[in-house]
Amino acid sequence: MNILILTGKFGFGHTSAANSIKEKLLLEHPEYNVQVIDFIEYLFPIISKVIYGTFNFLVNKCCALYNFLNKIGSKNSNAPLKSFIVRKIDRLLIDNEIDMCISVFPVCSQYISAYKRSRKSKVILNTCVTDVDVHEEWISDETNLYFVASEKTKANLVDKGVDSDKIVISGIPVKNSFNCEKDIKIKKNILIMGGGLGLIPSIDEFLCDLDSNDNFTVNVIVGNNQKMYDKISNKYKNVNVVGFTNEVYKYMKEADLIVTKAGGVTMFEAIVSETPLFIIKPFLKQELGNALYIEDNNIGEVVWDKSKSISNDIIRLIEDKEQREKMISNMRNIKMSFENTSYASFTKREEVEL
Asked: Does the pLDDT at position 348 exceed 50?
């Protein structure tokens, strides 16, 4: 079977989910041919950098405007299927003899769904929803199967008119490396990550408070934020600063608590690695549902007021062994609730005609 996983670089989560699905498929079926492509870059190679640059600017500098545009877009989510786009998708699917597309970003689902209607294509389209809350933009008529994070996500889709039989509760996909035994250590460890650390307004004061406590160590992943790396690297005795890394699972393995944004993929990486979460004021539309899911399932704490000092709350939680053990137990229960279904399991066909 030839499978194409479609993603977009709107943050790191969608690409991470795409690569996790590829890993799972090849473990189950090493004979499959599985490709991951940036669908936005493929369709719009000349302006893709502008699209991603605008997205990053809105998320980091104008989140209220981003949420407004996101709300407008979710109500008018049909992809504009121009003739040149149809020809590009023809080349992509027919030349590669694709049997199945798996989308991890709503725009990808919309374009493939519109293409299927236009060409009367029988290519299978499965959509993996990468947040707990699901908005109209994720729903496309030609989707064969939805893979979702939770019962709440499934109920939300059903309320919006999606057939219950087309929905599988699989959790948000993460790489198998996150599912590992934790090391026994003397000092507790805090992992801080997400958004180039823009989530913490006064990071120097915050890290100073944590660094002054010798009962634990801190790992800070700043990603591609070189300015932040230069600012805080080698400044604190108990703080280790890391740039971009493909080995986040190693730091989660060491961690007793993760301080981060309420991203869907990061949340499920924490669930799989059984590491409680501390979320600092979610502000993007899709993060609000994730934060409520964390609170409702008691797998972490959420600070809704970004202006308050949070270091004391973090220290309190990491020193509260009983509370963290409850959170870990709840994470295990969530993992056990996932349906053991392959992303390629929907329609078994000997042949799929385009």
From this structure: no
Q: Taking the model in full, what pTM does it have?
A: 0.83
Report residue 332 CA to chain centroid gap: 19
134 HSE (CA, 13 A, CB side):
29
| Number of Cβ within a 10 Å radius of residue 216 | 20
- Per-residue DSSP letter, 339: -
Helices then strands, each counted (H, E), the chain? 14, 12
Q: Which uninterrupted H or E stretch holds 71?
A: helix 63-75
Strand partners, 102: 5, 126
- Cα–Cα distance between 118 and 79 in angstroms, integer? 12
What is the pLDDT confidence band of residue 353, given thresholds at 50, 70 and 90? very low
Beta-ladder partners of 277: 258, 300
What is the Cα Rg of the chain in Å? 21
CA end-to-end distance (rounded Å), the chain: 14
Per-residue pLDDT of 279-332, as tens digits, reads 988 777 778 889 999 999 999 999 887 666 788 899 999 999 999 999 999 999
39: left (phi over 0), alpha (psi -120 to 50) or beta: alpha
The answer to whether 116 and 142 are in contact (CB under 8 A) is yes
Q: pLDDT tens digits, residue range 75-100?
A: 555 566 667 788 888 888 988 899 99
Amino acid making up residue 50? V
The torsion angles phi and psi of 315, rounded to 5 degrees, stand at -65, -40
Report CA torsion sign: 28, 34, 40, 46. Answer: positive
pLDDT for residue 240 is more than 60 = yes
10 Å CB burial of residue 246 (0-12, 13-18, 19+) is: exposed
Q: State whether residue 89 is helix, strand or coil.
A: helix
Map residue 86 onto helix, strand or coil.
helix
Which range is least confidently modeled, 72-81, 156-165, 251-260?
A: 72-81
